[in-house]
Design brief:
By secondary structure, this protein is mainly beta. The protein is built from 2 helices and 21 strands. It has helices spanning 2-25, 111-120, and strands at residues 30-32, 38-40, 46-47, 56-62, 68-69, 72-73, 79-86, 97-102, 106-110, 129-138, 146-147, 151-156, 170-172, 194-195, 200-208, 213-217, 227-229, 240-245, 250-251, 257-264, 269-274. Strands 3, 7, 8, 10, 11 and 12 form a 6-stranded mixed sheet that branches. The chain has a 6-stranded antiparallel sheet with strand order 14-15-20-21-18-17, with no helix packed on it. Strands 1-5-6 form a 3-stranded antiparallel sheet, with no helix packed on it. A hairpin with a 2-residue loop joins β5 and β6 (72-73).
Amino acid sequence: MKNIYSLIAGALFLTASLMGCKKEENRIIFEGAVSPVLTANSVAPRVLVIANRDVPTLRLNWTNPNYTFTTGVSSQDVNYLIQIDLEGANFNSAKKFERVVARDLVQNFTTGELNAALLSMDLAENVAHKLEVRVIASLINNSVPMVSNTLRMTVTPYLDVVFPVPANLYITGAATPGNWMGGGDPELLSQKFTKISSSEFQINSLNMKASQGFLFVPVYGNWSNKYGFTGAGLANNPDGDNFRPDGNDFVSPGVAGNYRINVSFKTGKYTFTKL
């Protein structure tokens, strides 16, 4: 009887071992990848001009990172994140440009597209900027990132604006000391922006009420034109967001107090800075 139990135990152990081996063989294990190699059609200095806005100017190519598993080279879709930042910022700038490319190993920029990318970084026009460019490859959920080499280039953007720049700009609404403006109301100079560049307006300090609505207008007391949020009313980021003509009401920051307000027609964004 003892020998019979021993034979049964041995058979169970052998079966379990074989099952364990089979399970181990079916596991898909990541074996490695290589960093993509990034190249450009040219890294010579570029001076962008508006007359060439539709002309291709920058072509980025990168090699396949060859994500490999025990089953062979991955058939999963690979995403590529293009990053452009100022030289020396180590791609840590809050305003760096980023674009996701799915599967392709190339990205083309026209003069206008490259110029818009640089202006979205709030870079000054007609100034040569030293830039760094790289690509980060990754699998699903940004897993297993592989970072390319960094290209350096100098580019001079031209002034372009998201929306035509008005002569003047005011802020109005329940969030402001003057509340909502009425037709024919005299202009409130305290709520008038100062034009600090060809495309940017600023109010250096204004006492704002918390979590109340407001809009921007080019003519105080006139509702025929206004600038509001690009999304649903009062759904904007209270510290700053995108705007558009005839947009919906903004909501002010959640803490009352004095704020510096900047509105840029170059980027189509505004910001609040607590003083």
